[in-house]
Structures are given as C-alpha cells and as structure tokens.
User: What shape does this take?
Amino acid sequence: MRKLQLAPAVLAGTLLLTACAGDPATTTATAPGPAATPIETPAAAEHSAGDGHDHGGNEHYGVPEVTWDAGAEAQVKETAATAMALFARPEVPEQQWFSELAPLLSPEYAEDAKYIDPARVPFTKITDGPAISREAQNPLTVTASFFTNTGPWDMMLHRAGQNEPWLVTSISSAASQ
Assistant: This one.
C-alpha cells in the first residue's frame, strides 16, 4: 500500500526533473509503465524561436514607437502657448473659459479644471515662454515653463503616441511646487 502512495510523488518529481532538462519546446515526459503519455511543459506553451516573433529582447508589447524631433517640439510649444493664453483670462466667464480651454486638456485634468474659477487666476500676461524641458529618454511628457506678470508658472503636457495631440495635464505656479 505504501508503494502506491509513493508512486504519484515519484512520478511528479520525475516530471519536474524531466521538464528542467533538455529543449523545453520538445521535451516530453513519460510515465513508467506500458501507456506513455506525452506531457507539454509550461515552457513549450510559450513562444519558441520558430514562431515568427522577434525574441531579441526588444519586444515592445504594444508600446508605441515615439521619437522626439523638431516637429514634436514645435507642436508642444504651440499647444502650451495656446493653452496658457486661454488659461490667463480671469475676466472671461467661467463657462466660456472652460469650454475654450477644455479641448487642450487631458480628460483627467479637464475634470479638475471644471472647478477652477478663472477670476482667481492671478496673472493676465505671459512675459516669456514656453521653455520646454523633458527627460532625455521620454518623448511623451514635457514641462513648459512660462514667466508671467506674477512670476513663473509650469505646465505639464503629455501625448499618447507619435501622432497624438499634446494635452495639458497640469498648470501650476512654479512657486507652489
């Protein structure tokens, strides 16, 4: 009776050891006895060298290929300047202010911006900017810095892909950061 209880444990151990040895795409394990059953190892279920996929370690898993170039810089500067000009209008009625600014905002920031009272925007004039800064390896997110008649302000912008529009994700006083 003990031998029958030990047999499944030995079989499982043998299968595990067999799965670790040899070529995982072709390895099969056989149970002792007359009826041998091939068992696919977990590695065999994954991609193999002959499956048509590039296995050079450069798979992007759906991440868009995005580059930074002069065109991207020009586009982000234009969007930032337009957005800041629309933001700096404390005399404009709230509904008009938001409806004109909203197309340039990310959905998340647009939700927050609904509650901004334009009459509380402390500046009315942009004196310099935008100056663009970004991380060297990140062509998707930038900071646009402006000088206004009340001091420096920063704007974060993001795009989802190479041909996607730049959208504002935040506008804040540089002094508040």
